[in-house]
Amino acid sequence: AQKVTQAQTEISVVEKEDVTLDCVYETRDTTYYLFWYKQPPSGELVFLIRRNSFDEQNEISGRYSWNFQKSTSSFNFTITASQVVDSAVYFCALSYGTGFQKLVFGTGTRLLVSP
Amino acid sequence: DSGVTQTPKHLITATGQRVTLRCSPRSGDLSVYWYQQSLDQGLQFLIQYYNGEERAKGNILERFSAQQFPDLHSELNLSSLELGDSALYFCASSEVAQSTDTQYFGPGTRLTVL
């Protein structure tokens, strides 16, 4: 079965701290895609990144970086020098196989960044 | 702003009633998806349409139905509403309907059933 686990329910940090959000996935497919979405307090879901299963290169975008490791089935997300505006719920998601896309979401990690 | 629009933003109604949620996908996107986000169930896929045709169904109740119109906008109809249907309903769109796609989400419609 396809599954995404975000074991961290809530993380609290102080501004400027680095924080890593964990994501572990399960799938039997060799072709799959991993995503991170951000849900700020306003409620919308904002796309952050997509990685495919054949590309294990880490990615950095400003203060955000992602570490994809197939050996541990993990796709972790690190925010460097966190800011109050980073406070949100972050979801990891998986789409798999070919044909139509169905996203399977993790339960989300709530990040609280205090000043 | 993802380019996906949803109306209304908030909806308050009573048990037993019927409501319609509307979604306009991003320009050029042919595929529309509906999701329900509730406290106890998390984010659940409901149904997908591609260019007017239903492509996939998830955990959608029989009381719920959807359609995609020729102009590609979509509507989600919820009937015989129950208290447990209170949730945030998201629409997402993508270019086609492949697993390679990225889904872009609208701002959501918050439904409250009293």
List the helices and strands and how they pair.
The complex is a heterodimer of chains A (about 120) and B (about 110).
Chain A: E1 3-5, E2 10-14, E3 19-21, E4 24-26, E5 32-39, E6 46-52, E7 59-61, E8 64-69, E9 74-79, E10 88-96, E11 104-105, E12 109-114
Parallel strand pairs in A: 2-12
Antiparallel strand pairs in A: 1-4, 3-9, 5-6, 5-10, 7-8, 8-9, 10-11, 10-12
Chain B: E1 5-7, E2 10-13, E3 19-24, E4 31-38, E5 42-50, E6 53-57, E7 64-68, E8 74-78, E9 87-94, E10 104-105, E11 109-113
Parallel strand pairs in B: 2-11
Antiparallel strand pairs in B: 1-3, 3-8, 4-5, 4-9, 5-6, 7-8, 9-10, 9-11
Describe the overall structure.
The complex is a heterodimer of chains A (115) and B (114). By secondary structure, chain A is an all-beta fold. Chain A has strands at residues 3-5, 10-14, 19-21, 24-26, 32-39, 46-52, 59-61, 64-69, 74-79, 88-96, 104-105, 109-114. In chain A, the strands form three sheets. In chain A, strands 2, 5, 6, 10, 11 and 12 form a six-stranded mixed β-sheet that branches. Chain A has a four-stranded antiparallel β-sheet with strand order 3-9-8-7, with no helix packed on it. In chain A, strands 1-4 form a two-stranded antiparallel ribbon. Chain A is globular. Chain A starts with a strand and ends with a strand. Chain B is an all-beta fold and 114 residues long. Chain B has no helices and eleven strands. Chain B has strands at residues 5-7, 10-13, 19-24, 31-38, 42-50, 53-57, 64-68, 74-78, 87-94, 104-105, 109-113.
Number of extended strands of chain B: 11
Mean pLDDT of chain A equals 92
Main sheet attributes: strand count, strand direction, barrel closure of chain A: 6 strands, mixed
Q: Using the alpha-carbon principal axes, give the shape of chain B.
A: globular
| H/E element order of chain B | EEEEEEEEEEE
Low-confidence stretches of chain A: none
Distance between the ends of chain A: 41 Å
Order of helices and strands of chain A: EEEEEEEEEEEE
Percent of residues in helices of chain A comes to under 10%
User: In percent terms, what proportion of residues of chain A is strand?
Assistant: over 45%
Instruction: Identify the most extensive interface between protein chains.
Output: A-B, 27 and 28 residues
User: Helicity range of the residues of chain B?
Assistant: under 10%
Overall form of chain A: globular
Q: Give the distance, in angstroms, between the N- and C-terminal Cα atoms of chain B.
A: 31 Å
| Quaternary assembly | heterodimer
Which structural class is indicated by helix and strand composition of chain B? mainly beta
- Portion of residues in beta strands of chain B equals over 45%
Tell me, rounded to a whole number, the average pLDDT of chain B. Answer: 94
Number of helices of chain B: 0
